[in-house]
Amino acid sequence: MTTTVPDDFLFGTATASYQIEGAVNEGGRCPSIWDTFSHTGHTLNGDTGDVACDSYHRWREDLDLLADLGVDAYRFSVAMPRIMPVDGGKPNPEGLDFYERIVDGLLERGIRPVVTLYHWDLPQYLGDRGGWLNRDTAYRVAEYAGVVARLLGDRVHTYTTLNEPWCSSYLSYGGTEHAPGMGEGPKSFPAVHHLNLAHGLMCQAVRGQVGDGAELSITLNLQMARGDADAVHRTDLIANRVFLDPILRGYYPDELFAATRDLCDWSFIQDGDLNVIHQPIDVLGLNYYSTNRVAMSDRPQFPQPVCATTYPGCGDIDWLPTEGPHTEMGWNIDPEGLYDLLVRVWDEYRVPLAVTENGMACPDEVEMDDDGAEIVHDGDRIDYLKGHMEAAGRAMRCGVDLRGYFVWSLLDNFEWAFGYSKRFGIVRVNYETLQRTPKDSFTWYRDVIRTRRLV
Length: 455
Ligand code: IFM
Fold this sequence. Notes:
This protein is an alpha/beta fold. It is built from 15 helices and 17 strands. It has a single domain, classed as Glycosidases (TIM Barrel), CATH 3.20.20.80. Helices cover 39% and strands 16% of the residues. 5-hydroxymethyl-3,4-dihydroxypiperidine binds next to loops.
């Protein structure tokens, strides 16, 4: 069954600055923690974002692709290293001009800009002072958010404060997968709190510039676990409610303190922080790809010594292999998980939602047409998108207030620690020539958007 969406529903695609822009030494940009991380052997094949899709130079072509696709909105991120390249210095006019051209270029094409203010490319000078372990980072990032909002104002449809703070905390300070790759499990808790604080401060900074009419959001990648009730409950607490509850309800759950008692005293929470974090938002973005399967084990909850983990406080939980088909990332394909997630968050938090990322890395095969041009028949990606859109539509029919759906990603791009080995784009990027080629999924999505139906 298909679901017809309201006129103001946003069909879109998403990207992020470090993943597509390249030109890392141009326009006055300073290095970010991802430049450092990727240049020091932490990514597959030593890949870096130095060139990426070269969207810094090819942005017009990319916006034309979006216009051809017929999207209502484009979700992209602004790079703080382009806007505030000097520690304690003034905003960089070249960086500001770049994003102003993109926003105006989108509006000229009838596309609404959805701006993510922070998608992981923290300036290295803030990384040098502890990154998200340092409370000051929250204030510096909020100051930058105000600079961007002052410039772009109400030309932006939605300002998203942070993309996936789970990754910027647990995966970056708890584990070793993301910059700075600290790998000290519970060290990620102060990073979590400082990211939550940054979200609140950024909301205040944007509203301070744009006024109460500013549409604000944050995007979370909530971890959808299935399995033993106790294991599901604990992982939900550590990975999800640690963001959802302070942001949407103004408190950290007591159970969280109990579940982490041997690891962290949470003394970094200061008086008034929760009031700052608990700002009204207009829409909650959810990035969804797959589910996890968990079970309680016989191990102790708090292993000694503390180890690298993206789930501190969950030492007694096993992550089991997932069933069914998997994407090239090794993630299982479980559209029902998207339905469950949307219904759960809507039922518990009653906040309007948007699917701000959903998509699939596929082993795309490139063929040549009669004229020697590249073509990609990515039927597996179409099936993935179809299944998830159907699930999203079903959630809407069950009453979920869903405002948009964004495919990850417009372009094949730099997939973080996986470098260029994983392709999520509905447009192929040939990394030698940088030529863009719409895949079959692009044409299919264009037809979906035209019908204004979730498949
Ligand atoms: O590429 C990432 C993106 O930056 C954040 N969400 C998940 C995507 C796929 O891993």
